[in-house]
């Protein structure tokens, strides 16, 4: 799943505001031209899909409150690594599979139904569902929605860009990944944004190895973003992952001084969000949907990585 806001990242930079939606959407923004696309407004959100009794569920299924994560970045055993590798492979398989259905006229609610069905069919649980009250099984963020978009009845339009963020809980471990998809004919500005975001993730992963500072991930992302003429949205972080959905370390995608170094056996996500304009975002009244203050488009890509003895393995690499 996409990167839910950690408490540290909220304190770090986010502007969490509540607006009257009518006033918010009617406001006239003074901004540069970001290209040709529709500004997304929230639609109707249907009820979440049921989870069969035989599916193993995380602690927050009933309470909405996740169990505490470790206090420090966890060094995983070979047995733990096998389980998280299996969950990551399933998450990427589902992400690759749902990508085949994304087209003009498809709704994000349709995407949610497909992700939920594929997850259940593979005896896993869709991790976003009920996590701190999130109502659906996947996050879908279109155009000016930076992160945590809730699937609804809005049909995808020609020229949209969409992030689909899939996380599954399999055999007691979470696997997390996301990717950008182009819907129909996307303008050059949108294509460039997606390409730069994908490159920033690749560059960030390329430096991961034992002894590397976590903070250097943000440096790499910033360099790619600035060279391409885009802005990093700093308030969404990557995170440690395992039997817990989110835990240490926090992975910042901007210049930072977060302490600590990578060690073999650590698993965490890297998931930069790049924007066309300002880095400022607003959380809408649903408590989740993060939109850009200037209505500029954003893009986000994510992998779960394992630090190995001599580098890093992308656990959510594409299934072949």
From TrEMBL:
Residues 83-309 form the Peptidase M24 domain. Substrate binds at residues 148, 246. It comes from the Eukaryota. A divalent metal cation 1 binds at residues 165, 176, 302. Binds 2 divalent metal cations per subunit. Has a high-affinity and a low affinity metal-binding site. The true nature of the physiological cofactor is under debate. The enzyme is active with cobalt, zinc, manganese or divalent iron ions. Most likely, methionine aminopeptidases function as mononuclear Fe(2+)-metalloproteases under physiological conditions, and the catalytically relevant metal-binding site has been assigned to the histidine-containing high-affinity site. A divalent metal cation 2 binds at residues 176, 239, 271, 302. GO terms for biological process: proteolysis. The keyword Protease applies. CDD domains: MetAP1. It catalyses: Release of N-terminal amino acids, preferentially methionine, from peptides and arylamides. Gene3D superfamilies: Creatinase/methionine aminopeptidase superfamily. It holds the Pfam family Peptidase_M24. Belongs to the peptidase M24A family. Methionine aminopeptidase type 1 subfamily. HAMAP family: MetAP_1 (MF_01974). This is Methionine aminopeptidase. It comes from Zootermopsis nevadensis (Dampwood termite).
């Amino acid at each position: 799943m996409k990167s839910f806001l950690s408490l540290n990242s909220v304190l770090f930079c986010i502007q969490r505001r509540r607006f009257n939606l009518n006033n918010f959407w009617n406001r006239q923004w003074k901004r540069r031209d970001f290209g040709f696309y529709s500004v997304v407004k929230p639609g109707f959100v249907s009820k979440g899909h049921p989870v069969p009794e035989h599916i193993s569920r995380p602690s927050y299924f009933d309470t909405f409150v996740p169990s505490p994560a470790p206090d420090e970045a966890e060094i995983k055993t070979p047995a733990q690594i096998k389980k998280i590798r299996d969950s990551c492979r399933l998450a990427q398989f589902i992400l690759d599979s749902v990508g085949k259905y994304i087209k003009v006229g498809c709704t994000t609610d349709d995407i949610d139904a497909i992700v939920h069905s594929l997850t259940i069919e593979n005896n896993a649980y869709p991790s976003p569902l009920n996590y701190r009250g999130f109502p659906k099984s996947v996050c879908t963020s279109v155009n000016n929605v930076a992160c945590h978009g809730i699937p609804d009845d809005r049909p995808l339009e020609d020229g949209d860009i969409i992030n689909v963020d899939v996380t599954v809980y399999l055999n007691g471990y979470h696997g997390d990944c996301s990717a950008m998809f182009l819907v129909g004919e996307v303008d050059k500005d949108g294509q460039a944004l997606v390409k730069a975001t994908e490159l920033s993730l690749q560059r960030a992963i390329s430096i991961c190895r034992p002894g590397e500072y976590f903070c250097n991930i943000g440096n790499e992302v910033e360099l790619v973003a600035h060279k391409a003429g885009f802005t990093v949205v700093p308030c969404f972080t990557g995170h440690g992952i395992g039997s817990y959905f989110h835990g240490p370390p926090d992975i910042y995608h901007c210049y930072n001084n977060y302490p600590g170094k990578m060690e073999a056996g650590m698993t965490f996500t890297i998931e930069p969000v790049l924007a066309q304009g300002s880095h400022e975002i607003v959380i809408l009244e649903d408590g989740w949907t993060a939109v850009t203050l200037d209505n500029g488009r954003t893009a986000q890509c994510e992998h779960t990585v394992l630090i190995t003895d001599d580098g890093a393995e992308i656990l959510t690499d594409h299934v072949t």
